[in-house]
Amino acid sequence: MSGSALAPKKKYDGIREHRPETYNDYGAGSRFLEEGFRKKCLKNADRSFAQGLQCQQINSINALQSIEDSVFISHSPQGCVGCAALGTMQYRIGQAHRGIRGNRTPKVIVTNLDQKDIILGGEKKLREAVHAAEDRYHPKLIFVFTSCASGIIGDDIDMILDELQDEINARLVPIHCEGFKSKVCGSGFDAAFIAIGKYLLDKEKRPTQKGLINLFAPVSISYKDQLEIERMLNQIGITCNYIPFYSSLDKIQNITAAEASTAVCKVFADEFMKQLYEDYGIPYSHTVMPIGMRNTDKWLRGVAKIFHKEAEVEAVIASEHKRIEPEVEKIRARLEGKRVFICGGTGRSFAAAALIDDYGMKLIGLETPTYDIDAQTDIEYLNGIHGNFVVDIANMQPFEQVNLLNRLKPDVFIGVPEWAAKLGLPTTHVLDMKRPTFGYDGLLYLGNKIADQLENPGFNKKLASHSKLPYKASWYETDPFKFIDNSVWKD
Ligand code: SF4
Q: Fewest CB within 10 A of the end CB: N or C in the chain?
């Protein structure tokens, strides 16, 4: 898809719900969903009961955590940075896999807003934290993340940082990611990119470097996936400037020197790529996550098109198919006909749903945090190959997931495994962080991984026999979407 096709009418405010036709609470059959979306008659429902959501603040922090010479200040109570441990783990493992000596831990400071600050304001603590960051670490960048608490008390972060900038050598970058602002956790990525565009890019475009692409990726991408992306793109003469993944101030400022942009995920940097097109004329490819044969082909073709390398990429795709097809056949023999339930972020869950078709597996249920025009494009394709299946549009909400799993009884669950494993189902996931998932090599790895899990279900069976989920038997008999207004799925 080219930049011009998606050019927005007005500047995006960073809240995904504000984009037209974006839905984040729904339960329906996939055919109903496709048709309802097409006829513009879906209503954004709400849950009358909901368990905790993933907060957008943590996505803002995680997106930036691997940038060199940076300190991350969360202007929040202490609990808000609990999930920063996940990004820290991803970053430390990622460095080890890349052979980086002197493994670093991201420098995260929390201002620890408490009850007194909620009444009197947290400005003093924020000023102290910024000075502490500068004195302790002498960074090039200090990112300051807002939170629900700082938003509620109305601390004017922009003004405070503006004033402090005269006293501080590091560039100060406010990120407006108050958790309550959006129920779609992908908005957290947008907040980070809006700040990069506003505070770190020069207004003038740098001279274009031939063959350079901005490759937008979060820190969760494994080193094996990075190598696979590079291997595929290098074959058509393209090199990558990774942003913000293992990036630096210099690499960020070099964004405007790229010939084009793309991302490894549909909901990562999509709005930012549109902005780069509008502000600097950098075209972009926004297609799918390169997981599975169909998606990898589509992703590669999208990138090749903006570099006018359509013929070269067809030769690469043909040669890759020839190389892996005998292996795919062997794996298919182990997986064909198995029924699958998938739960994941929007990009990965839809990509995994396409991947299982490579192995002749059948999708029976899909849980995804949001639904929009991009998801509709995927659902049209998936309905064509899998027929009707259940779609739960949910940011988290494990109570709905266990109900669905209990009644659908899939042969395998793909996603964060905790709840499904305790039901004794074979589980695996496609967000590995340590091993390959992308491209042609990733397809083989994932296929073998799913098959191994199916053939060795003993651990989850034992786990289930020793676990009790916290729901009454009556919940499993109830409509899983009982708490969503306007839900329409019936089994
Ligand atoms: S920013 Fe808000 S939603 Fe996010 S962790 Fe803090 S209190 Fe919770």
A: C
